[in-house]
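Changelog excerpt

This revision adds worked examples to the README so contributors can see how folded entries look when concatenated. The first example is reproduced verbatim below.
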Amino acid sequence: MKMREALGICGIIACALIAVNAAHTSDSQTGNWTISRSDEPGTVEFSLIISRPGHRSEHESQWPLSTFQGLDVSQSGRQQVHFTIARDAGKFDCEGYLENGEGAGLFHFSADPNYRREMEALGYRDIDADRQFSMAAMDVSLDFARRIQAQKLEGVDTDKLLAFKIHGVTPEFIQGLRAAGLDEHDADQLIAFRIHGVSPEFIRNLRAAGLNETEGDKLVAFRIHGVSPEMIAELHKSGYSPDADALVAMRIHGASPEWVAQLRSVGYDHVELDQLVAFRIHGVSPEFIQKLQGLGYRHPEPDQLIAMRIHGVTPEWIAELKSRGMQNLTIDQLVSMRIHGID
C-alpha cells in the first residue's frame, strides 16, 4: 500500500475506534473490523475486535471471501461498504470504508437466541455473551458440534469445542488419526496434536519406519524434540531399536544417526543406547576418542570413557603426565589420580 493509502486507512481505523468506545456504553457486542489483502487466493485477512474496560476480544485470521455477504473487494478507489456475516451463533452487520481492498469500520453482533438452547441440548453449556460472540467469530456451527459429539471423545466442553475450531481439530482429522492406527479420545491430547503437528501422515511414517509405539504424549514429545521417521529408519539401519523414551532422550542430547556414524568410524560400532546418551551428556566425542587413541589408548570401554570425562581425565592432562615421565598409566589409574587430586 502507498503512503497516502496507508495514512487514509489509519485514519479510518482511528475514527472507527472512537465510535466503538462511545458505542460500548450501550452495547457490548459492538466493535470494529479491519480487512486487508491475503496471499492466499479467495481469502482476506479479517479481524473482529471488541475493546472495553476490563475486556478485549480480538479474532484475526484468513477468511474466505464467500463469508462476506454484500462485499466486493475487487473495486478500486475508496468506497463505503455494508456487508453481513451470517453464522449459526449470530450475525455480524458491518459498515465502514474500503480502499483498494483494505479498510475498516464498525460491526454489530446480534446473537441468535436459539443457538444457546440448541448447544445446551447437545451438552455444551455455559455459553455467555462473550463465548457466543467468539463461537460466531470462529464459526462453531451446530453441525460442527454434532459431528464432534459423534466422535465419542472425552472432556469436550464448550471451551474445548471452541479450541477445536481454533486449532483445526475436525472430525476428519480425528478419523484420519484412527485410520492411521491411533484411537485417541482425549480432547486435550487432540489439541496438542494439532498444535505440535502430530498428523495422520506423521503416524503412518513412524509405523513405516518400524516404530509401533504411538502413545499420545510420546508422539507430542517426538514433534517437540524433532524425532522423525527418518531418524528412526537410520538408527534401525545401524542396528538400534530404541523405544520412544530413548528416542526423545537421544534427540534432547544430540545423539543423532550422523554422530553415531562418527563413533563407528573411530571403532565404536555398537555402543548401548544409554551409554550413547551418557556420551553426549558428558562430552565423549569422536574427537576425544581420537586424541586418546593418539596417546596409545586404543579402545577404552564406554564406561571408562564416561568416567574419564566426569573426572576430568583429558588428553591434554595425560600428555602433560607423559612429558613428566609418567608413562603407561592405565585408564583406571588415571581416573583414580584425578579423584584423589593427584596432578
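The second example, added in the same revision:
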Amino acid sequence: MKQAKEICPTTTMGKVKEGALIVDVRNKSEVKNVTFDVSNYINIPLNELEDRINEIPKDKEIIMVCRSGERSLKTTYFLMNAGYEKVYNMRDGIIKWAIKGFPTKGNVEDLLNAESCDCSQPNCC
C-alpha cells in the first residue's frame, strides 16, 4: 500500500490559496466550537464520510483535517483506496493550525487549553 502524503499547516495554507479543498472530518460539535476560516472548506464528519464521498471532487487537491491529525490520516487512506490521487493529511490538525495563527473562527483558546482530547465524543482522537 502507498504511504499517505502528510503536510504541515503552512503547506496546507499555501495549497488552500491555490485552490485546494480542506475536508474537516471532526464532528459537528467540534466544528461549532472552532473551525477553519477559509473559503475552500467542507465539514464531513468521519461517520458520514462513506455516504458523502461524492461531495469530494477527484480533480482538486484535497487536504484531510481533524483536531490532531489522527482521524484525518485514516480518512486520507480511505480516499486513496477510493481512487483519489491528490489527497493529503494535515499533520497535527487544527491545533497546530491555530498555534501557527492561521485563520480560524470560534473559541481557539478552549482548543489550545485542552490538554488532550476528552474522548467523550465518538471517533475521538
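Reviewer comment on example two: The radius of gyration is 13 Å. The chain has one domain: 5-109.
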